[in-house]
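Thread: "does anyone have the structure for this chain?"

Original post by V.I.:
We have the sequence but no experimental structure in hand. Need at least a predicted one for the grant figures.
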Amino acid sequence: MRPMNQEVLVLNSDYEPLNVCHARRALALVFLGKADVLHAHERGLAMVHGTYPSPSVVRLRHHVKRPLPELKLSRRTVFARDNYTCQYCGLVARELTIDHVVPKRHGGQTTWDNVVTACRRCNMKKGDKLLHQTNMRLVKAPTRPKYVPYISLTKYLVGRRNEVWRDYLPVFGDLYD
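Reply from O.Q.:
Generated one for you, tokens below.
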């Protein structure tokens, strides 16, 4: 990844995670006096007027009010909720699909508690049948996540793996309890 395209965690003045942006945008906020760099990568960014720290986490100097975000149901958020894992066989794969637990043909809706991540093989095996007709079981029952981070659910889950960002992201053992 090019240095200016590295992702940077943006915190509100009260240290609440607000967003994830690219290093270019984060440096612009710093140069304009709107943010401070809290953590930087070891390797700086070479620019025309010298080398500058490559930010990993920045904090805004003034508080930004934001309405509570609404977690939208989409392929991406379902994959993130299910940790990119087939909910029938447990396979972690790139080729994933969305499956309706109760198929649309049987009156199933596209809702948080009726869609799951499935690998192609399991989705084909289940088809438009009900679970009890297939002898398949869910690894985990689908539910709507209770915690809605200001940053996208996908970025939140990826950010939880970043050792520096982890200090600033709220900890929720299970997003669905």
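V.I.: this helps a lot. The chain has two domains: 3-66+148-167, 75-133.
O.Q.: and The CA atoms of residues 35 and 122 lie 48 Å apart.
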